[in-house]
Amino acid sequence: MTQVDRTPSGEADWVVRAAEPGDVAAVDALIRQLAVSQGHPEAVTARPSDLAEALFAGTSTTHCFVCLDGDGRVVAIALWFVIYSTWVGRHGIWLEDLVVEESVRGRGVGRLLMQRLAQECLDRGCARLDWTVLTDNDGGRRFYDRLGARRLATARIHRLDGEGLARLAGPAEGRVP
Q1: Disulfide-capable partner of 23 in 19, 81, 88, 95 (CB 3.0 to 4.6 Å)?
Q2: pTM of the predicted structure, to 2 decimals
Q3: 90 - beta bridge partners?
Q4: Superfamily name and number for 3-174
């Protein structure tokens, strides 16, 4: 579904819609910009083909909304997937990345993407929308506060990857099929 909204200042029309295969290069570029801005450009090892498969394979569980400027250029993305809460007994949406080009920040683009995600939650009957924010991302935290988001002090992210993941899984010959 395509949704067209006008920014609060009325200066430009933004189009928020589901990503299409032709958007992959722009989505990939914004993800790489995010990694650079966070000081970890080497952390992005995914190729555009990986992103295309994740978003557009027949069994895809990964989704992306894009925001286009008046020239049809992708200037922001919200990459997300469906999660499930055992406590609530309903699905939710996990926002993996919200990336807005620096040149259009402060013009309502991030809010439009978050509104679209909120609407997607309601349309799907989801109970909540969750995401993480880096502790040093003061601008992001203020933005989400303005949207009315609650900061959860009771949860911390844990991760297993690389060697730790392989070590926990155990030797390949001893894995359960």
Answers
A1: 19
A2: 0.86
A3: 85
A4: Gcn5-related N-acetyltransferase (GNAT) (3.40.630.30)
